[in-house]
Design brief:
414 residues, binds acetoacetyl-coenzyme A, four-stranded antiparallel sheet, three-stranded mixed sheet
Length: 414
């Protein structure tokens, strides 16, 4: 169930999606061009304020409303969904880990769309194992000096600010305690934009390598009040951002489904619309059902993130649900978008029809902000922990006893 504020923001996002995003989606995809016109429309509509707290120029509408915006945008273009959501990913380290004066300085400019931000965690050799960073952040008298390379930086080049994670304690390298986060401004000496990736999907948003060579930033830019907090900030950021990826996937699934459903009502074979053939009708029914199941889980995981912001005792539950929502919605999107191409048949495989783009855009959602293998790891750790509270079931599960000859028993015990 959504409330009136939720519906209002959803309608606002839908207006931008249908009037600005959808008409330009194919062109930006083909040219791999950043959609500046869309960014302006998002800033004008105030949607970039959605997740930023009111005290810092935002609307303080939290994770659920952020997801509703991302879903509506992604329904028209999955690339625009992430082009919007990545500003939340980049700014959460400041919201969750920044000092008061840092929030006052950086967040209002992001909320009003004057500045864009990105999240620089991954490296060529540190993807799923996010604590294995090799970017060094060393301290001078009043500066931090960054040396290293970053990979997969979404918004790279267009963003003005970069939340950069690296090692401030080399004796702990490879461990979470070694990591800190600093904010780096585009144009800082020693900060170079590297290779721009040529991508399968989400082509309207740039993904770059970032190079730091003796790049000095004021000591003031360290997020938080001491070093070593970076890994926790990164993990909490990802908990907040994963429902956004899930919403992107949900929007892609919904958008592809709508095209497939409409096409199936128009396309005639064997004397009738193909939706009347049971194989297609039932497929559309399954697509619709799985999308709705994903939607409920995504909204509920976002609500749980919002609840945990007010009540820290819910953080573990929120961490688990954010992973579950991301896992389920993105796998659903990959299945739905692939079947949408199937329903279009040969036309679906062609670039002058809109559905193949949904399939390409959906793929990355199973990979970034934690692969779905990592989401399963997160969920499985929770499941294992929760099993300890199920001890009361033991008396209902017969124990498995096997008689073992004494000679072997001694060997087994060794
Ligand atoms: N919130 C707060 N703290 C957390 C946490 C969370 N969600 N998860 C872990 N921590 C803390 C733990 O409590 C622990 O703290 P202590 O040392 O004080 O005990 C510490 O962090 C280490 O935790 P783990 O032992 O669980 O860490 P791990 O090394 O096993 O890693 C992981 C856990 C879940 C696998 C993590 O590395 C991970 O999420 N990997 C995936 C990284 C990822 O999502 N990268 C995507 C980058 S963004 C992107 O895709 C780019 C884009 O542009 C869109």
């Amino acid at each position: 169930m959504l409330d009136s504020v939720n519906f209002e923001i959803k309608e606002k996002a839908k207006h931008v999606a249908e009037n600005v995003v959808r008409p330009l989606a194919s062109e930006h995809d083909r040219k791999q061009e950043y959609p500046w016109k869309v960014k302006e429309a998002l800033a004008e509509s105030g949607l970039l304020k959605t997740w930023i707290p009111k005290e810092y120029g935002g609307n303080g509408l939290g994770s659920l409303n952020l997801c509703l915006v991302v879903e509506e945008l992604s329904r028209a273009c999955g690339g625009v969904g992430v082009m919007f959501a990545v500003n939340a990913l980049g700014s959460y380290p400041i919201i969750l880990g920044g000092r008061e004066e840092q929030k006052q300085k950086w967040l209002p400019e992001i909320a009003n769309g004057e500045r864009l931000i990105s999240f620089a965690l991954s490296e060529k050799m540190a993807g799923s194992n996010a604590s294995d960073l090799k970017t060094l952040i060393s301290k001078n008298d009043d500066e931090y000096v960054i040396n290293g390379d970053k990979k997969w930086n979404t918004n790279g080049g267009v963003a003005h600010y970069y939340s950069v994670f690296g090692v401030t304690n080399p004796s702990q390298v490879g461990k979470p305690s070694a990591i800190s986060a600093v904010v780096v401004e585009k144009g800082t000496d020693g900060f170079e934009l590297g290779k721009e990736e040529d991508k399968m999907g989400i082509r309207c948003v740039p993904v770059r390598e970032l190079y730091f060579r003796d790049c000095a930033v004021p000591k003031w830019n360290l997020l938080g009040d001491s070093e070593g907090k970076g890994f926790k900030i990164a993990m909490e950021t990802l908990d907040h951002a994963r429902p956004g990826v899930a919403a992107q996937a949900l929007g892609c699934a919904q958008g592809a489904f709508e095209y497939a459903s409409r096409f199936a009502s128009r396309r005639r074979q064997f004397g009738q619309p193909i939706q009347n053939h049971q194989s297609i009708g039932f497929l559309l029914a399954d697509m619709s059902t799985r999308i709705e199941a994903a939607r409920q889980l995504v909204y509920e995981s976002a609500r749980m993130i919002d609840a945990a912001d007010k009540d820290p005792s819910l953080k573990a539950k929120a961490n688990k649900m954010a992973a579950q929502g991301k896992l389920f919605a993105t796998d659903t999107a990959m299945w739905v978008t692939t079947e949408a191409v199937q329903i279009f048949g040969g036309y679906g495989f062609m670039k002058d029809y809109p559905v193949e783009k949904y399939m390409r855009d959906a793929k990355i959602t199973q990979i970034y902000e934690g692969t779905n293998q990592i989401q399963r790891l997160v969920v499985s750790r929770h499941v294992a922990r929760e099993a300890t509270s199920l001890k009361f079931l033991d008396s209902f599960i017969p124990t498995i006893d096997q008689w073992i000859p004494e000679e072997l028993l001694n060997e087994v015990k060794k």
